[in-house]
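FAQ: What does a multi-protein file look like?

Like this. Sequence, then tokens, then the next protein.
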Amino acid sequence: MTWIYFTLLAAFSQAWRNAFQKQLSTSVPVLGVTLARFIAAWPLALLYLSSFYWKSGFALPDFPTAFWLYTVGAAGFQILATALMVRLFQWKNYAVGAGLAKSEAVIAAVLGVLFFGTQISLTAWLGVLIGGVAVFLLSGATRVRAMPLPTLLTGIASGTSFALTSLFVREAGLCLDLPRLQAAAWVLFLVIFIQAVALTAYLHLRQRDTLRKLFAQPKLMCATSTASVLGSLGWFSAMSLNDVAFVKTLGQVEVIFMLLISRLWFREHLKLNDLTGLILIMLAAILVVKN
């Protein structure tokens, strides 16, 4: 049951991270908002990793080539996924933007079965598909044609990139000969560190004004990084303990937190079908947890 607690932590933290990123997106360019997710997160990830060696002493594990391929791939796809989601925030409201990106659960299930050896029961598939319908309802469109094509395609691309990130993260952790949570801590730290270094270097060379705008809002930047590292800690740990499709389907309870933030903080108006979507998400979560 530990994976359930980690998933709930991830969902709650990610909802707040998305909210902070939406605030930043009003005055900071897309890549700057994306960097806010990583820039102050890696020291916290290092602190968490160090906790596993508090009594035993620090020792580097053996990192096979496959581990680095999955880790670098996860870092790249997560940057892409976040940038696409921030673009959605700029086009639509907070709930719609983050809701479209949550298509990752269904995509992760399909990709996991096709390429990563994931086995999913009929009951769990039902939960995944119900969760997908719920996200569609909560995205604010009752028909596909009611949503602008660029918004729909960007949402699917973001969800696919998040799904690949999650699948690569799980595979990277499985490459290490360590206890599951300890392996997840290594993946967490290295992914965030690679992202922070790579994106900071790029912006320093190509978009220094973006860095200035980001560092002009230190409180919001640090809040984004803190919520992000807590969310990633939850996701990475949960995915080390269970298949990505199950974790991401249960993680759709994030939408509940997301809608509450959208309504109570951003004062955005929600549709009548939000209640139906929320009920479906809870049903999907129950089916996956009972799998």
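And here is the next protein:
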Amino acid sequence: MSSTAPRHTALDALHRSLGATMTDFAGWDMPLRYGSERDEHHAVRTRAGLFDLSHMGEITVTGPEAAQFLNHALVGDIAAVKVGRARYTMICVENGGILDDLIVYRLAEDEYMIVANASNAQNVVNELGNLGEEFAVEVRDDRDHYALVAVQGPESPGILKSLTDADVDGLKYYAGLPGTVAGVPALIARTGYTGEDGFELFVKPEHAVELWQALTKAGEGVGLVPCGLSCRDTLRLEAGMPLYGHELSLSLTPFDAGLGRVVKFDKEGDFVGREALTEAAARARANPPRVLVGLVAEGRRVPRAGYAVVAGGQVIGEVTSGAPSPTLGRPIAMAYVDAAHAAPGTPGVGVDIRGSHEPYEVVALPFYKRQK
């Protein structure tokens, strides 16, 4: 265990003044919840929630070969992303294992911003730095240059529109544009990790408090509440969104995770892990080892990551994430299970919770999909 003191976001004092329960997350002191995580969860599903995501890792890639370089370093066709748009993708190692899942924003013809998970950001910076030596690019670790505030939920467009002249209605999902929010220069992105409509606002750390307070005030009339990492986890779990270290890891390829669609074999140029990923794709088609599924409890006991999934007295898989679902009112889990037991409605599947085999229903992901 590292004895390094946790890092604090620009909003740290504000979280404490709001009575947040803080927790160490990937070396950052982050708000876990402010009051009831269940209430925060419901607020995002029905109204709006405000999140500090400043622990995420921003990396800027610039230079005449930026597009070519990212096509080589990442599994997606990043050169095909238009300026002002974003793409969900992954960075894999030579054997096809996932180093991290990322969102890449194309800010200009030869400028991209990559957002990595807090726990992997340093590894991604290092890997891109090494790979970039072969290309005419600059890879810049910009983690200290950004604070990230997200407003998520059905009321979020209205809240944001009251604070900006930017064309919020015209901003598509997975697009980003520069604008001013409450007088603060920001990159306004229509992205999120909750399964709801929402926005992520990248600003300078010195503007974070001002922005947070303006959003709070603008959301007063529509029930916006500050939200911690705890409800962010139940929101993304209901939406079937993977979390690195749970559904994704170095020992899994994108095809193992059921996310083979992010790998673009038809793009120009070679890319890291292509050979291994070609083999993984063929394996997944012929004989998938295990498949990521949803599990819904018949009882009240909550499954946790690492618990065995069982059928007929045999272990057939493992839970990767589990929690009570505030929206469904029952415990849910994502799990990798043997392909023979992966079909929705497969009978006889349970989770071993401390020696007791609790019955679970196998369902297709996601558990929750918002009404468009």
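Q: Is there any per-entry metadata?
A: Some entries carry free-text notes. For the entry above: The longest helix spans residues 274-286.
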